[in-house]
Amino acid sequence: MRKNFKKIIALALTLVLALGMFGCMAKPGTDTASGSGRVEPPADIWAPYDQTVTITTMGEENSGTEFQNGDDYGNNPWYRAYKERFNIDLQNKWISNDYGTKLNLAIADKDIADVFYVDSARLTTLYEAGLIMPLDEVFESYASDTLKQYRKDYADTWETGCFDGKLYGMPQMNYGIIDQFQYIWIRQDWMQECGFDEPKTMDDVIEIATTFAQKYGGYALPECQTLENFYRLALSWGAHPGIWVEQDDGTLGYGTIQPEMKEALAQYTEWYQQGIVNPEFTTLNWDKMMQGMINGECGVIPFAQWFGYNPLPDLIKNQGPDAIFYPYEIPTQDGSPIMGSVTFNNNGYVVISKNCQNPEAVMKIVNFYVYTVNDAVGVETNEYLSSLHSFNYPNVVRGTRIINPMNDYNQFLQVKDAFDRYLAGEDVDTSALGTNLSKYESCVNWVTSQDPNGVGDYLQQGNDRSAYGIAKQYVDNEQYVQDAKWGPDTPTLQAAGSTLNDILVEGFTKIIIGEKPIDYFDELVQQWYQAGGEQATKEINETYGN
Amino acid sequence: MNKRLGRKNMWQYYAMLIPGVIVTFIFCYIPLYGVIIAFENYNVGKGFASPWVGLQNFKYLFNQPTFTRTIWNTLYMSVWKLLLGIVVPVAAAILLNEMRSNKLKRFYQTLIYIPNFLSWIIMAGVLMDILSSGGAINLILTSLGLPAVDFLGNAKVFPWTMIISDVWKGFGYGTIVYLAALTGIDPTLYESAMLDGATRWQQIRKVTIPLLMPTIILMTVLSLGSILNAGFDQVYNLYSPAVWETGDIIDTYVYRLGIQQAQYSVGAAVGLFKSVVSAFLVIVSYKLADKLAGYRIL
User: B37, B257, B261, B266: best mutation site toward chain A, by most A Cβ within 10 Å?
Assistant: First the structure.
């Protein structure tokens, strides 16, 4: 009996296998129909389908993409690659310049594509409405080794795409924490003319800034309505505005209402009263502040690593290549090493409709993106990889890509190394650069011909004093405070997060312009708690606390 | 309406109303069902079957420390806009009407009407430049020995910057309405007034203004319905955190709260709140106008 049973099982398995193979040949992919239950382990996850499989998606218009030779959202190097490599026909259900609204309508109509990307709030919505499928099985069977490694390496982030322990949304990750740090950018030609060295204390920074203002006009420190420069400088006092930090008593609290912020605010208010902070900042939005920078009104600005991309090229077109700014570390009040703020940064989640007939085809597409930024270097030609990654083409596959969080870090190492060798006059083997070739080339363009479009890459990663050069130390030495909220917003933060921040920005503005005394800060914190901050703090401690 | 025409003879007129009533019913009454979103925790995926939360959205809104001030700010700005929005165009219309040269009259009429066609996005950019500390207005003020005014950054001045710039932008339109009403006034009334020895000023007070009153009342009642709209486009493009204290209106607040954070239920709750208050105001003001001045629209 027992023997017979085994035989029957073996026979049945063979039959299933044979049928499965037959099915594959006849109508590829449909054997995995519902996707939630029966996923056949594949022979080769990279193999093409015999018959074309159609997958639909929904996407967002992206003004940054420069389509070449008549390409468009439906026909571009990525979509052609899917067709050539896998015989997958990726079709756009729609492309919208108002993705969020259009997506809401699609969800309300229950008329969604096979695969698309969502934010964490909509991931919850879709899960609760039962419109998306669990991905564990198809992921196990079809995800490439590299993609599986991502899941292992960034397990906490992948956890945020799970409900009841099942994966529903694959996190799209980010370009790495190396791009999250803040610097003080100082104009080089003015610095040399005035004979200043790298600032060691915040007083040095202010001295440089005020000297510039006296000598070259304008004002010492730029600022705008949202107080973002103040928030950046607050790091100097050990404050971490915008992220959740562990307080002295071990519980989690919001960084923007900690005592360090009050100290920073008191100093900033003094600077405003002395005319150091742009007296007109209350009426300037970010664009207007940047316009001032482009006009050369200011030689010092606290800013992120991408200052070289915007506004610096415009400034250089305006005032010549000598107007270049370099990034410097933000000095701390007590001279200790600066601690940056690092937030949970996930670009979205790839989700698959529960009605998708070929979820494994989606995995192939996702695998391919991962492949092009990792294993393909050296395997595929540089021209081929560049054709996929230049002109912001990766944006057209916004819904199906998963980014390598070590991307920018590795890129920096490669580009810096190649560029150093270029500067030393050695031969540079550009074929090893893969998708990073264009970054290297723009660094070269900047030093050879002062091409303003190359200055961004040069300042981000090309030279000895580049932003990533500084940030690499921060990453290597773990010189940062990680947001305790390592995941999506809690319900109260989703509902009222920006309203809560508004209360603080408004109150801080009143203190800075002298309408309220500095002790109004404490009153403000109470207001913040009242308006929902208390509930938010409770939720954060429950979800993310120890 | 001729009283001899009974209801029996008017059925054709009622029949002609039917298409309009049907369209209104389909597009204005059926969607009213959507009001239930205000009492739910709306999830786009579940639609109208989202969980019912009763008055929670309203409670949440009124518990926000910065919400109640927006009601006051809205009323302050829109009442002044409403009042000046009557006085200024009526005055302008009468002045234009008194002009002898038709060419000049048309010229000025066109000139004051032009700002009405520019959107607030463009207007805001222009105003920000004109009103900045180094802008035209402050240059004039300082050259006259007056102190410079922070029109957009000072919370005390900001509402008036909004009121005056809105009236300035919009009064051309009102002027045209009142000019049309003026041309409808029987010239023989002025002739007989002149024969009685009335001066120009007396003619305006005793003939023009009383005959304009129905139009003024009509325009006022019509605009009362939108009294809780203090001008989102305008305020949103010109305000900043420094002036939220006096400049944040219901619509801008809800925009930051509801739309930016995708809180559809709270947004719907505010919309419902505004509609109820507006409907109440329209009914009361209409009854008052009827009772005090004896004016009715129909």
Answer: B261
